[in-house]
Amino acid sequence: MVGPTRIAVRASEHFPEGSQWVDGDQMFRVERLSRRDAVPDDQWGPIWSVMGTLADLHGSDDVRLTVWFDD
Predict the structure, then answer these.
(1) Taken in order 10, 11, 13, 18, is the CA torsion positive or negative?
(2) Mean pLDDT computed over 27-48
(3) Could you tell me if 15 and 30 are in contact, meaning their C-beta atoms sit under 8 angstroms apart?
(4) Are residue 41 and residue 22 in the same domain, yes or no?
(5) Same domain, 44 and 16
(6) 28 and 49 co-located in one domain
(7) Percent of the chain with pLDDT over 70
(8) What DSSP assignment string belongs to 45-64?
């Protein structure tokens, strides 16, 4: 049996793009989003600017952004 952590990390192996299913009264569909769909430039533009500057200074392989979203 595949555990929930493995599914979360490798979701595309278990739910290929285009998959859909109904759970109760909700339908779920797996779709690919672009970064701009998920995190619009009008809200995150300054962050992308800073990251671009850091990448220019230190190389893109040495720049990472880690975020945490909490309700």
Answers:
(1) negative
(2) 86
(3) yes
(4) no
(5) no
(6) no
(7) 82
(8) HHHHHHHHHHHHHH-GGG--
Residue 46 corresponds to which amino acid?
A: P
Give the domain range for residue 63. 33-71
What Rg, from alpha-carbon coordinates, does the chain have?
Answer: 17
CB 16 within 8 A of CB 30: yes
The 10s digit of each residue's pLDDT in 6-27 is 555 566 677 788 888 888 899 8
Average pLDDT of the residues in 59-69: 90
What tokens were used for 46?
Answer: 């300054």
Q: How many residues does the chain have?
A: 71
Q: What is the dihedral of CA 26, 31, 37, 38, to 10 degrees?
A: 70
Decide if pLDDT at 34 tops 90. Answer: no
